Design the sequence.
């Protein structure tokens, strides 16, 4: 994508975005609702024309090409499968359309179904599948024609949390092994972190930060990015906003801070400490929760913030 712009009437949905998906990598477009992720995906797919800028595939300008001429596969939230075709024929459809003989198309379909763990269900019809199985069939169908690029728009959003978690793990391996370049749209930070090699963080139609998933999460470019990525310990200071990531906090050392609130859940215990800078939020594993001390004055937690592991970020949330 080079300098891509797209407005709907007076609303700029995408402003001057330049991004590259490298061969074999998964790039996540991550951002809040309405930031332009889907619009950008539609422009890459050829379902929408940019007002300015170009889309290049393997270096070739495809900005004016129709979707079917681009050699891409798309999976949307409502991954409509063909209801009258079996799972195998759904997946064989793409290779057939690209001119593969029936037997070769079916062989390829069977191989991809095997990869997503659904070899046993090849003869079923879509209405005989669970949501998670149907989603995997949709992914298999998208991968079967060996697309130059796979475009995914919130592909796991219709699934429950447990299924999402198990599919995320499988997909990363699948994309690796198939060697497909993937452009993934999501507003879910965990999805981006779990699936993507690189993340492009979008805000108001622009890319505000792009980098390896680990880097973007470890070093957000500003207070807005940090807050969007789920950081809660942000304190206004002179010259910017101080981010205290949880990994900067050592338990069982330093002062004992009063615990203002403690809420247990499946992940452990969420506590809020009355820290000098302001409320400090931490999630303690069951083992870490052993550091909580009940005293006459109430519950306290000994914790020390390593200043070197904190970041002073530009305050750009206004
Ligand atoms: N067909 C359209 N007509 C008018 N405005 C549109 C159209 N499609 C999108 N928009 C606007 O463009 C902006 C970007 O929308 P887009 O769907 O790309 O965002 P998104 O980041 O994908 O959001 P979500 O996560 O909610 O799907 C929004 O302000 C949206 O209201």
Sequence:
């Amino acid at each position: 994508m080079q300098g891509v712009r797209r407005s709907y009437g007076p609303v700029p949905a995408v402003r001057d975005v330049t991004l590259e998906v490298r061969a074999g990598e998964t790039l996540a477009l991550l951002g809040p609702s309405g930031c332009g992720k889907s619009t950008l995906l539609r422009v890459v797919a050829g379902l929408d024309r940019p007002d300015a800028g170009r889309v290049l595939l393997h270096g070739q300008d495809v900005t004016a090409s129709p979707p079917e001429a681009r050699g891409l596969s798309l999976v949307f939230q409502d991954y409509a499968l063909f209801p009258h075709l079996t799972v195998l024929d759904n997946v064989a459809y793409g290779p057939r359309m690209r001119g593969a003989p029936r037997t070769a198309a079916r062989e390829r379909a069977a191989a991809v179904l095997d990869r997503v763990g659904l070899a046993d269900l090849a003869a079923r019809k879509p209405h005989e599948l669970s949501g998670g199985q149907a989603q995997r069939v949709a992914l298999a169908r998208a991968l079967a024609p060996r697309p130059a690029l796979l475009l995914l728009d919130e592909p796991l959003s219709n699934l429950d949390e447990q299924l999402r978690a198990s599919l995320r793990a499988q997909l990363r391996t699948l994309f690796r092994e198939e060697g497909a370049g993937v452009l993934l749209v999501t507003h879910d930070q965990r999805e981006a972190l779990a699936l993507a090699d690189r993340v492009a963080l979008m805000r108001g139609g622009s890319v505000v930060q792009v980098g390896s998933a680990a880097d973007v999460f470890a070093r957000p470019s500003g207070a807005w990015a940090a807050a969007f990525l789920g950081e809660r310990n942000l304190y206004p200071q002179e010259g910017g906003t101080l981010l205290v990531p949880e990994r900067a906090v050592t338990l069982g050392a330093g002062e004992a801070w009063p615990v203002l609130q403690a809420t247990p859940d499946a992940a452990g215990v969420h506590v809020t400490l009355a820290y000098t800078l302001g409320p400090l939020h931490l999630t303690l594993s069951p083992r870490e929760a052993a550091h909580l001390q009940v005293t006459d004055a109430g519950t306290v937690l000994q914790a020390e913030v390593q200043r070197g592991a904190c970041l002073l970020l530009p305050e750009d949330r206004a």
Remarks:
- The chain has two domains: 2-224, 236-313.
